[in-house]
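Chapter review: from sequence to fold.
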Amino acid sequence: MPSNAKLARRAEMKKAEFVKEIVENEFMPKTIKFANENFDSADAKCLIEDFKVKACEYFKTNDFRDGKFELTTSNSGFYMTHGKDVCLSVNIESKQQRVYHQEEQKNILEDLIKDRQKSRGETFCYYHRVADKIYWGTNDEMREQMREWKKQRIDGDITLYEENKNEFKIGKRTYYTFVITPLEVGKAEAIGLDPLGIGMSYLVDGYIYWFVKKENRDAVFNYVMGKK
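The token string follows.
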């Protein structure tokens, strides 16, 4: 008689096979058509392959029968929504294809609040793509950074759009954001969606900065953009 461990493994394998079959039959035909209609063949192939793998992972723990799933393009790939939530997002990046889960990114944001060191005077945070880490910074660090941003803005390398200023309730605190948008042709699209934004169903290409205080966010924004 098989042990409980063997029975559990068999059940897990059976579920994985079932999920794979559902993804291949129910989701992939629409996804393949959608990707090929919106991207060149090379990019579409990469996105489709990665989406299939990650969709199988997603539906192992999420009910595919619960509601309607939709596909929508971004500047750098496409994402799948369920209602108002972003379930996963596939982006074309220079080194790899990444899929981000909305709930996972939301949990990261909530945990991030706990990591803030008030004693160090930390007032803002952001996701560092190269290091693949989230960092908190101080006002002194921001003063140095904003001078560099202003120079880049004057040189025409970046901008900050007024419409990308937002506020989000995370836990019991409201955070105030703006987005650094590279202006070099194709650069923002290559960067793709900011992963932390996905956690709040906020889909934007570029770098999101999250401030504890609205007045700090506004002061930095106005300085960089040359507004009084």
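Two observations follow directly from the output. The mean pLDDT is 81. The two ends are 78 Å apart (CA to CA).
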